[in-house]
Amino acid sequence: xxxxxxxxxxxxxxxxxxxxxxxxxxxxxxxxxxxxxxxxxxxxxxxxxxxxxxxxxxxxxxxxxxxxxxxxxxxxxxxxxxxxxxxxxxxxxxxxxxxxxxxxxxxxxxxxxxxxxxxxxxxxxxxxxxxxxxxxxxxxxxxxxxxxxxxxxxxxxxxxxxxxxxxxxxxxxxxxxxxxxxxxxxxxxxxxxxxxxxxxxxxxxxxxxxxxxxxxxxxxxxxxxxxxxxxxxxxxxxxxxxxxxxxxxxxxxxxxxxxxxxxxxxxxxxxxxxxxxxxxxxxxxxxxxxxxxxxxxxxxxxxxxxxxxxxxxxxxxxxxxxxxxxxxxxxxxxxxxxxxxxxxxxxxxxxxxxxxxxxxxxxxxxxxxxxxxxxxxxxxxxxxxxxxxxxxxxxxxxxxxxxxxxxxxxxxxxxxxxxxxxxxxxxxxxxxxxxxxxxxxxxxxxxxxxxxxxxxxxxxxxxxxxxxxxxxxxxxxxxxxxxxxxxxxxxxxxxxxxxxxxxxxxxxxxxxxxxxxxxxxxxxxxxxxxxxxxxxxxxxxxxxxxxx
Length: 548
Fold this sequence. Notes:
By secondary structure, the chain is α+β, with helices and mostly antiparallel strands.
């Protein structure tokens, strides 16, 4: 067995690859009546109902990178808007006897492993200390409330993962999906903060310290069970909120000491009393990748022209709430080339929303399967997202097929393509062939082939895992890129879908990638959705609506 932490995470990644001949280890069947609880509550904790206030602060999606004209200070209403548009419910869906919630932050399989916690002091109308966010009722549950400390107010948001929610369905590959979901959650938080004119940035904290700050190490509080692993919450990341009138939060160690003097309340509800499987590989990679959580790299932003405001007049809150994962796409519809270029430009890292929420330098690049983009030939394209990758990644692609011999920058053949994009056409291929390739590589799913384009995210795995914790940050960056694509697709009048199931090594073989340096870590697809009229949509919080 590998003894280095880096070896453990690399071995986990290799072990959990899907292959044409076999999928990664997972449950053979699912009992949907025994699905783990989608919401966690803290019975007995003081409850603070948050206002549904996001519409008070609505402004154009295209203006998110600009500060609002009126300064918005953090209080109960603005905190409610922040949490509503990042982790709150966006709708309830009903089909026959089945009813399920959708949230503003997407999740693999709509399973939602991420839990959010508020740490604060001095915010008007908000108790100081640690509070758990309950998305089902849009409320804060007071876990450790404390007397205010003199000084300016501060606000931080902590995230954890209930990994069993994903493992129940996806088996050993669930750790990957949890980290992708943390990345999506970070993006959702960053966009919600930008609506208010705020910013969120990662705060260094070791896993043990963050666990203590979020109350996750209080094992006696959690329901006793011989299957304790189902109840465990993995500490993930802590964000400081930058907003008018706020000071930076205390260091994580100081936060932990402060909470030691608080009054702890509430008993967490049970996630799953009787799981059918146990996946030790998840615990192994989670333990190994907790190393050096407090040594996050500072994101580096290459000089790029500012991203132009999106031409849509739609409101940001409206775009965030309407975000969905497309289930079917219309192959008769195409995507305007300008919209395609805009989406790719938006995923280039810049010092504007959502990239300050990233924990490390960028190591994710896009291998694009272009299918139905007006004015662009169908084929295989490459988008390196950093100057270093623009130099090194094309040289690492060595497909044996002669069709890939005529690669060229798209800007050389299309004057409408922004030169700074660095988009490369690797090979022009017929639509039917591209459909076959895209479908087969994404676990034979039609959504990868009936869309306007799909893609695989190539991560610099070897570089990222020089520190074992870098495996988490690599996957989270992929989720953050996915969140940008989700919202950009909605703003363009189409729809995106994250694809966690893909055949890893066949993607590498198509591109001619040899060795473990670059690995496919996430797929995504964008197209015109086909709506299922049988599914009814209801409001997210019907219990809070005024009755006639």
